Amino acid sequence: MHEIITNLHMHTRYSDGTGSHADIAKAALKAGLDAVIVTDHNVYVQGPEGYYKEGRSRVLLIIGEEIHDQDRDPQKNHLLVFGADKELAQYADDPQDLLNAVNKAGGLSFIAHPYDPPQPFINEPDIEWDNWEVQGYTGIEIWNGLSEFKYLINTRLHALFYAYFPNFLARTPPPKALKKWDELLLEGKRIVGVCGSDSHALHASMGPLHRTLFPYEFHFRNMNNHLLLAEPLSGEESADRRLIFDAFRDGHNFIGNDLPAPTKGFRFTAQGIQDSVMMGDEIPAQGGVTLQAHLPLLTDVIRLIKDGEVIKVCKKQQVCTHITSEPGVYRIEAYHRYLGRKRGWIFSNPIYIK
User: Fold this and answer.
1) Kind of pairing, strands 282-283 and 351-353?
2) Residue 337's CB: how many other CB atoms inside 10 A?
């Protein structure tokens, strides 16, 4: 398999961001990303999609959209859409109609910032997802960079601190989001977990102080989606888009917080009597299955989660192995210490033992 690093969920001047698509591509090139997916609010921007290059480096910029009902107050139920390749904001007033339209167009859909509290210090309302009866979405954004910032600031001093010292962010996905993901998986749904930077590169002021809140490049150097592709990117835009979309659709990805340490090289696999599978795949329990997580370096804690419960903990190890014949949904969480705090480092998509 071929691993690439992709960041999704960001905004330009076409909605409420401050940069251009070229600015995003330039930041992604500096951060060493392979692809970015831009999702402006309720506008499908045609034109900027494609490969951007600098020297021998290249990054594929893909255009998606973040769609929500703008007439609702507060504006909840935001959905990230890409691969539909057309404007679908006209369906925003009914989330199920929107999902039906996405699926009809062959696109992918991810529930954005499912738990997103109000934050008066930066004039941000509660914009979490509240329609859990809908069906047919590809996945859920279990970790959102801007939402985490909103969770952590309780005073203007907190906001000022994180604006100047952003490396103290990117701690861990909200427990409510992880719990909801496990609940959905237990219902038998194949729900792909992703992270989103929700980067706006916002210009903020507090008296004489002026600061860009979390420039695009900062977000691109921490929470990323690491995709495992069937073949390497070729540089041909349409073919590479398909490879990326297929990996997201199949759950062949993990969330890597590359701020504490690079996560490239992580693998979570299952070996059965006849088959060997990876994240997002299914394998029969008959005859026993060996689950193995291999991390790029020794880390503080590796947790093996089965059906939402921790069943094994490996400490100060680089490899964690578990043999089972029990059906269930298995995923990995790994934590790594950085700046004096244990950080969420790696979150795999599940392997399904049937």
Assistant:
1) parallel
2) 14
Give me the half-sphere count of Cα atoms (radius 13 Å) on the Cβ side of residue 3.
17
Q: In this structure, what token pair is assigned to residue 186?
A: 């237990």
Both tokens of residue 109? 């859909």
Length of the chain: 354
Residue of 192, 258, 251 whose CA lies nearest to 7 = 258
**How far from 106 is each of 86, 103, 200, CA to CA, in Å?**
11, 5, 28
- Whole-model pTM: value is 0.95
Which pLDDT band holds residue 125 (cuts at 50, 70, 90)? Answer: confident
Among residues 54, 63, 56, 17, the alpha carbon closest in space to that of 36 is found at 63
Structural tokens at position 169: 């962010």
Q: What is the pLDDT of residue 209?
A: 64
On the question of pLDDT at 352 being above 70, the answer is: yes
- What pairs with residue 124 in β-bridges? 119
Paired strand residues for 253: 227
Q: Could you tell me whether strands 192-196 and 139-144 are parallel, antiparallel, or unpaired per DSSP bridges? A: parallel
DSSP E strands in 94-186: the ranges are: 108-111, 139-144
The pLDDT of residue 142 is above 90: yes
3-state SS of the chain: helix, strand, coil percent to 5? 20, 40, 40
